[in-house]
Amino acid sequence: MDLGDLITPDAVAVSIKANSKKQVIQELATRAAKETGCDQREIFDTLLQRERLGSTGVGRGVAIPHGKLPSIDKIFCLFARLEQPIDFDTVDDEPVDLLFVLLAPESAGADHLKALARISRLLREPGAVEKLRGTHEASAIYAVLTEPMESSNAA
After folding, report:
1. 57 and which of 63, 83, 112, 124 could share a cystine (Cβ 3.0–4.6 Å)?
2. DSSP symbol at 94
3. C-alpha span between 35 and 26 (Å, rounded)
C-alpha cells in the first residue's frame, strides 16, 4: 500500500495554527470534511473518541489520529504540520508538530491497519521526519510522502 493511494495533494496542510489537542483535531476534522464530503462533526467526534482511548501521539513529535466512519467509502489520509508544536500526551512526552489523520470505512478491516503500518514505515525511513519538518511547500511535502520507500520492507 502506497501513501499516494491514500492522500491527495489537497490533503497536505502546512503552517496550521492550534494551541491544544482538541483545537488541532477540530481543524483537521474541518479539513478532512472538505476533502471527503463527510460530516465534519462526525469526523471530529470519531477522532476525539479514539484519543480518549489513548493518545495517538507516537513519539518524535508525530501523532496519527485515526478512526473508522460509516460515511466514508475508502481510506483517506490527511497530513498537517503545525506552526508551533503542541502537547499531545505522546508516549515520549514530546510536543507534536506533524500529524497524519487516517480515516477508514467501518468495513476496512486489515486495510486500516496496513495504512497505519505504511505511515509508521515512512516515519522510520532515514531522514523522512526531518524532510517533513524542513520542507515548506505543500507540494514538496506531498512528494516526500509519496516517494518510493528506500528500505527493503516497503511492500
Report:
1. 63
2. P
3. 15
